[in-house]
Specification:
By secondary structure, this protein is α/β, with parallel strands linked by helices. It contains 16 helices and 17 strands. A hairpin with an 8-residue loop joins strand 6 and strand 7. Helix 2 runs parallel beside helix 6, helix 3 packs across helix 4 and helix 10 runs parallel beside helix 15. The longest helix is centred in the last third of the chain and has 21 residues. It binds adenosine-5'-triphosphate and magnesium ion.
């Protein structure tokens, strides 16, 4: 099944709203087995919506629209789509009852009549119940196996409706295999990974291999061919994983979808060790990433945001002389932070992060993106200096990823970095 996404809304075209709905939808469609062949941003204008729909249908089986399902006059997606498809608009009494019930459960005031419009559907459409908002999703099956789906623009509503209704629909309608095996890596650039894995596609009978880069990590996703029975599928997946593992070795942190923080947490739990963190340039993002994981209290105690030098001394016991001699962004201070915070919290392990996230504050010796990380465990200590690229948010996010990876490496007895083995990935940290 092929699919196209229409992001409807003047705010998308004006650049005021970043079209994250497309990103979410494209990924979900692809993972459900549809091939996304087009994407258009469309103004809140009936003629423009009709033209976009016609173009999309000329090349895709399924057109998914997001935006313009609200009760206000600028929300005209339903009317425009109905008119373009020559369908009447009819009020659905069951949907109307839902919209009213939802209103009553949230607000005491009577529902304004304009909201009734959210129960209007093109004739013949099926409404998908919206668990987080009032406008339902709308699914319209057309002739010749074509489909139109209308989803709200509000990202949370769109996502829930897509997850609950669109994904199962696409999975049911699609013939493409959607069984994946995913190997997650950190610290190696996408291009380098691809270079090392080069002929994997050939060795896997032409299987589709996708490289999905995130903040500092790259997931390798291999599509398992359809038509295999369960044991054959398992054997095929294991062969695929082994190929990636042989190429990416210690850069691989997970073969079962676990995020890096969970991999680190599991290693700590196996050893019965607990962790505390001292964060300067990441300002709590590391603790945030760790505690986003349910159950992290089993191995994570807490930490301190030690942004000012005085805080580094007061909260993590870093000697003022050390700060004066080496500067806050230095190997010595990163190590002192990791040791000091572990001592302060009484944990076996500690992580220290200090760096220059930019855009200001860089010097020729310590340019923006310089980050020092240190990890201590009862087995020893690792330090790593990074030269990260990107803006402030990216530097901070990547520093968190590499801090977790440094601890993973320490826990597994791997070297702090393996650039000697695989080479320095462009755009990724240069370790010293
Ligand atoms: P509402 O009931 O709020 O009117 P709606 O279905 O009509 O819902 P829109 O009015 O088009 O949706 O958009 C609502 C909000 O959702 C917008 O203000 C915008 O912030 C966000 N939004 C809309 N389209 C997108 C998109 N493509 N990507 C990300 N966010 C979007
Ligand atoms: Mg609206």
């Amino acid at each position: 099944m092929t699919a196209e996404v229409l992001s409807i809304g003047n705010e998308v075209l004006s650049g005021r709203t970043l079209d994250t709905n497309f990103q979410v939808l494209a990924r979900l469609l692809e993972e459900s087995g549809a091939r996304v062949v087009g994407h258009q941003a469309v103004p809140d204008d009936a003629a423009a919506i009709a033209a976009a729909l016609a173009l999309a249908h000329s090349r895709a089986d399924l057109v998914v629209c997001t935006g313009g399902l609200g009760p206000t006059p600028d929300d005209l997606t339903v009317d425009a789509v109905a008119r373009a498809l020559r369908r009447r608009v009819v009020r659905d009494e069951a949907v109307l009852a839902d919209v009213r019930a939802r209103w009553a459960s949230m607000l005491r005031a009577p529902m304004p009549p304009s909201n009734d419009r959210q129960a209007d559907l093109p004739e013949g459409a099926v409404a998908w119940k919206n668990p987080v908002g009032s406008a339902p999703g709308i699914h319209l099956a057309l002739d010749e196996g074509k489909h139109v789906v209308l989803l709200p623009g509000v990202p949370e509503e769109m996502r829930e409706l897509a997850r609950l209704h669109l994904a199962p629909f696409v999975r049911g309608a699609s013939t493409i295999s959607v069984d994946y095996c995913v190997v997650r890596t950190v610290g190696i650039a996408e291009s380098l990974l691809e270079q090392r894995l080069g002929d994997v596609t050939a060795r896997l009978d032409g299987a589709a291999v996708a490289y999905l880069p995130g903040q500092g990590g790259v997931d390798v996703r291999i599509t398992v061919p359809g038509g295999l029975d369960a044991p054959a599928r398992a054997a095929w997946s294991e062969r695929a994983r082994a190929l990636v593992r042989d190429a990416a070795r210690e850069y691989v942190y997970s073969e079962d979808d676990r995020p890096l923080e969970q991999v680190v947490g599991d290693l700590l739990r196996e050893r019965g060790w607990r962790l505390a963190v001292a964060e300067s340039c990441t300002g709590g993002l590391l603790g945030g990433r760790i505690t986003s994981l349910a159950g992290s209290s089993q191995w994570f105690d807490g930490g301190a945001i030690v942004y000012a030098n005085e805080a580094k001394t007061r909260e993590a016991g870093v000697a003022p002389e050390l700060l004066a001699a080496h500067g806050a962004v230095s190997e010595e201070v990163a190590r002192a932070l990791a040791r000091g915070i572990a001592a302060r919290f009484g944990t076996a392990c500690g992580l220290g992060v200090t760096g220059i996230a930019g855009p200001d504050g860089g010097t020729p010796e310590k340019p923006v993106g310089t980050v020092h990380l240190a990890a201590v465990t009862p087995d020893g200590e690792h330090h790593r200096k990074l030269q990260l690229r990107g803006n402030r948010a990216q530097v901070r996010e990547r520093a968190v990823t590499f801090a977790l990876d440094l601890l993973r490496r320490r826990l597994l007895g791997l070297p702090a970095s393996s650039t000697g083995a695989i080479g320095t990935p462009p755009g990724e940290p240069r370790a010293t």
